[in-house]
Specification:
The complex is a heterodimer of chains A (211) and B (235). By secondary structure, chain A is an alpha/beta fold. Helices cover 17% and strands 24% of the residues of chain A. The two termini of chain A are 20 Å apart. Classes of the chains: A alpha/beta (211), B alpha/beta (235).
Chain lengths: 211, 235
């Protein structure tokens, strides 16, 4: 049986270490917060200029001046610090973030990632994703294993415009987890969702990977 | 020299011309210079090139200039959440230069600091690298990105003194700081203007040297794009 979005988020949370500074993207990555163990202290980075993200505000306590990169209202944490967009991306570009968890439309077997546009159809823009995937040491992708029409998303070569080349370290889908030791290494299957056989996985994956 | 102007229209007097380039602060609708944008709309100036992370949302902020076809080209990282922006782009009515968010921030910071450009790993091997110089440093590929220096910068701050020393508030700082530096003239709109000497010099985010003209735009009815709450746990 496939993992739920929450189970995928919980699996992604296990990739984080005590003391990490982490940027979370929109969607499943946002759910990761709820699954970080109590003895692991992680400081969240919001690229619009905040380190230390608290919970969403209670009704009536929203502040239009405190939002996350997904434009949602949030609150400060006890260790929060604000800064400009220039400083925010200096942190990212300078390699000061430990990990980034983000969604993807496609990831290729060499770690290319595409998540910012579908030509002629949907153009949202890359936002901060190109900066994150090119500069953060550990890139963790959470995504459904196949798209809505059943097309594999872990592929030999991305068909969509890239967000970054050779950038992904860990892929967590609803069916499996793949990781690789370095950016030069191939991906290896390291976990299967309960009840998913290696054959079933291979039938919905076009990328080559080690078992 | 008097920096404080009575309103946005008077602060913009003599600075606007068709085809000009403007840098605008803000992230989504957080910390956007809305009074100045409204006055730019009223002025009738057109054919604008605007560098801003987003283009507001439909009919809010820069979205108003977009809806009235005053913008020829946007330099932005994100157009999601703005249907009119996406529509004008897909029909070719507007030109967009996509610039990754951090690259855009740094292009403005660099431009404002007299730096012609810089090399970054961001965007190497992607469509935004097309036509740009790629150079290797220690075996790693970097992309050359040019600094931005516009005719005018418009920003939103929280509090400023009469000499333009300015403080931002929380995540409303965002692009307002780098944008403030990246133009010949920066106009700031703030929620409160206080006498010189009443702000702690050690707490100033943006020194007054960058702020050439200043208005108080209060009262603000600050918009929230996506109101998200947590469920209160029963006591």
């Amino acid at each position: 049986m496939a993992w739920t979005r929450d189970e995928m988020a919980a699996r992604a949370a296990r990739e984080l270490r005590d003391g990490d500074y982490v940027n979370l993207g929109i969607g499943i990555p946002t759910l990761v917060v709820d699954h970080i163990p109590g003895d692991v202290q992680v400081t969240l980075h919001s690229e619009n200029g905040l380190l230390g993200i608290g919970p969403f505000p209670v009704v009536g306590a929203e502040d239009a001046d405190i939002i996350n990169a997904g434009k949602q209202t949030i609150t400060e944490a006890i260790n929060s610090a604000y800064f400009s967009s220039a400083d925010s991306f200096a942190m990212i570009r300078g390699g000061h973030l430990d990990a980034s968890i983000l969604g993807a439309m496609e990831v290729s077997q060499v770690g290319d990632i595409a998540n910012w546009m579908i030509p002629g159809k949907s153009i949202k823009g890359m936002g901060g994703a190109m900066d994150l995937v090119a500069n953060v040491g550990k890139i963790i992708v959470t995504m459904e294993h196949v798209s809505k029409d059943g097309t594999p998303k872990f592929v030999r070569e991305c068909s969509l415009p890239l967000t970054g080349a050779n950038a992904v370290d860990v892929i967590i889908t609803d069916l499996a987890v793949f990781s690789r030791a370095s950016r030069g290494a191939p991906f290896r299957l390291i976990e299967l969702a309960p009840g998913v056989s290696p054959e079933q996985l291979s039938a919905v994956t076009s990328a080559a990977y080690l078992i | 020299m008097q920096k404080v102007y009575p309103d946005a229209t008077s602060a913009l007097a003599g600075l606007l011309f068709d085809g000009m380039q403007i840098c605008s602060g803000g992230f989504g609708v957080c910390g956007i210079p809305e009074r100045l944008i409204d006055a730019i709309l009223d002025s009738g100036v057109t054919n604008l090139v605007i560098a801003s992370n987003n283009c507001g949302i439909d009919n809010v902020g820069l979205g108003k200039l977009l809806a009235s076809h005053r913008i020829r080209k946007m330099i932005s990282s994100y157009i999601g959440g703005n249907r009119e922006f996406e529509r004008q782009y897909l029909t070719g009515e507007i030109e967009i230069e996509f610039s990754p968010q951090g690259t855009l921030a740094e292009r403005c910071r660099a431009g404002g600091a007299g730096i012609a450009g810089f090399y970054t790993r961001t965007g190497v091997g992607t469509a935004i690298a097309e036509g740009k110089e790629v150079r290797e440093f220690n075996g790693v590929k970097f992309l050359f990105e040019a600094g931005i220096f516009a005719d005018l910068a418009i920003i939103k701050g929280w509090k400023a003194d009469e000499s333009g020393n300015l403080i931002f508030r929380k995540t409303a700082r965002n692009f307002n700081h780098p944008m403030a530096t990246s133009a010949k003239t920066c106009i700031a709109e703030v929620e409160e203007i206080v006498p010189v000497g009443s702000l702690d010099p050690d707490s100033i985010h943006l020194p007054g040297i960058y702020v050439k003209r200043l208005i108080c735009g209060a009262p603000y009815d600050k918009l929230i794009e996506i109101k998200t709450n947590r469920v209160e746990e029963a006591a």
